[in-house]
Every structure is written in C-alpha cells, then in structure tokens.
Here is the input.
Amino acid sequence: MKRRIAIPIITSLLWIGFVAAISFMEAWLKFRAPGVTLEIGLSIGRLVFNALNKVELLFGTILLIHAIYYLKKSAKPMIQCLLPIIILVIQTLYLLPVLDLRAETIIARIQPEPSYMHFYYVGMEAIKVILLITIVATNFNLVNSKKSIF
Here is the structure.
C-alpha cells in the first residue's frame, strides 16, 4: 500500500480508536465505579481528556502535514482531511477550556449554571469520528480501485 494512502488510513483509525475508547466509553464508565465521587470522576476526566487532546493534536498534525504534502491540487481530499482538524481546533481552543473551568468549579463544590457545552463537545466528537471514517473509507476505496487522488 502506498504511503500516501496508508498514512491517512492508519492515522484516522488510531484517532477513531482513541476517541471511541475515551470519549464514548471511559468518560461515563468511570462514574459507575464504586467509590468514585463526582469530584474524583471530574478530576480523572480532566486529566484523561487533556492527554487525549494532546494525542489528537498529534494525529491532526500528521493529517495536516499529509494533506499539505500530498493534496496540494486536490480540493475534496484536502477539505476531507481538514474538517476533523477544524473540529479539533474548536474543541481545543474553546470547548475544552470552558469544560475544564466548569469541572474545576464543580470540584470546588460550587454549582455552576446549567450548560450545554458538554453536549456540543460530544456532538463534535461524533461528527469528527464520522469524518475520520469517511477518510478511511475513501482511502480503502482508492486501494481497491488502484487509483489515487493523493
């Protein structure tokens, strides 16, 4: 398999795995463990999601470098690679700081105002995973068709 097709497939699959395991599994499962209070769960969550964000930034950087290097003249695949990165940037620069501050407030035993930011974050995670799946599917189709848009 050519590197220009393998890189987005491998990167996207790893990225999907991290997001699915942490955002869609660990995030709510930790609160079901015996003895885990809301404050402890939020403290663990802050640590885990900050680590996940750093790993995602690495995956996003790999896809961005790949897109710049291989996709200079191809608008559709360039956009396809950039969309999950744009979501990640929004999460990193806006949603995670807001959610982090909210978690700190709750950990300090202060009840914050109701917020939908968590739902926005989860919705963006779902959209990001769908976008990454389309990158994988597109590239697997290229492998099967022996053509390359990259």
Summary: Residues 3-140 form one domain.
